[in-house]
Amino acid sequence: MLRRTLDRELQRLQDEIVLMASMVMRAIRDSVSALKRHDFEGAQRIIVGDAEINKKRFAIESDVLVLIATQQPMAGDLRILAAVLEIVTELERIGDYAKGIGKITMLIGLEPHIKTIMDIPRMAELAMGMLERAIDAFLRRDVELARAIPREDDLVDNLYNQVNSELLALILSNPRNMEQANYLLWAAHNLERAADRVTNICERVVFTVTGEMSELDQDVDNFSEPHGDGAS
Prior knowledge:
By secondary structure, the protein is an all-alpha fold. 79% of the residues lie in helices and 0% in strands. The longest helix has 36 residues. The protein starts with a helix and ends in a 22-residue tail after the last helix.
């Protein structure tokens, strides 16, 4: 009976992770859409809606702690529960990046964009595609997929570097572009960091299956973002 209860609760927790991941992916995509379209109402919904993502994280964490205390999980179960705790933390942080982009939209206001918003949406799609497959790798305990996904981070990094170069050129051509260029760079940086968070999730998937913890992308930096969630 104890085993059946634990298995049922582990499945429920995985379902909750899928739900939370979908909330986060929608928030990222909607935040970038709001940025592109000067959609202040959409940006405000993302900022306010971040509280629901946070609430989901805390609820899942609470359930994990209850299971550990009451269901006598075995070593393999504990790895799954540890993975759940790690994954919801990473998802919540990606949600913060979406909120940051929403704030950036509000800060830019009605000022025309100094460059066409093309590469930032591409970064968002790449990062969220990585996230969707990382969650699938966790659900299926697919180590090969988990090891493969972080290689795609280079594509996100390349777009980030391209955005950075273009914005720098715009600043050099006209110093008045500096403020908005910084805002757009923060938005791109948030998406670059979101892809890094996906790599962390993939590392946890590998640990869940193999019991081994190793960095899948040696180039991922672990610095603290100087601008917090991407906008102050």
